[in-house]
Amino acid sequence: MAATGKKKKKIPPIDQEFLEKMENALQVLKAEIVDNLIAGNEDFKEIMEGEEPKDLADIASDDMDRKMIEAIGTQELKRLKLIESALTRIKQGKYGHCIKCGKRIPQDRLIAIPYALMCIECKSEEERRNR
Question: Residue 97's CB: how many other CB atoms inside 10 A?
């Protein structure tokens, strides 16, 4: 029985120099996020460990600060996971390929968003569906 499916085009690997550049950029982003999370954690500790008695306005202000720090921390953790995933894909030889369609993600997109998982078309389609 002969196979009737189309042959899948083999996508050539990404240029090694570009991969190294992106890996370095991802490592720098990762270090910045970790530093921000550590600094945010220190800010959070200071808010939580404030020793002087507070009036209602101070408590409300501290609560807003705490919520903002938590929200920023959550966003940064998401980015950190995406960066870790991108670094893993580099090691596996899968970096720069859309996780949905398998096409090459344009280098300009990777430079703008080094941890991009999808090509522009697939990402746009996903965003339209999620509206």
Answer: 19
Give the three-state DSSP class for 104: strand
Q: Give 33-81 pLDDT, tens digit per residue.
A: 888 877 766 655 555 455 455 555 555 566 666 666 566 678 888 898 9
Are the C-beta atoms of 114 and 25 separated by less than 8 Å? Answer: yes
For 116, residues 6+ apart whose C-beta sits below 8 A from its C-beta are: 86, 105, 109, 110, 123
DSSP-derived secondary structure letter, 68:
H
Q: In whole angstroms, how far apart are CA 112 and each of 7, 25, 89, 102, 106?
A: 32, 11, 17, 19, 10
- Positive or negative, the CA dihedral 85, 87, 92, 97 is positive
Exposure class string for 71-81: b at 16+ Cβ within 10 A, else e: eebeebeebbe
Q: Which of 88, 117, 92, 98 is nearest to 27 (CA)?
A: 88
Any idea how long the chain is? 131
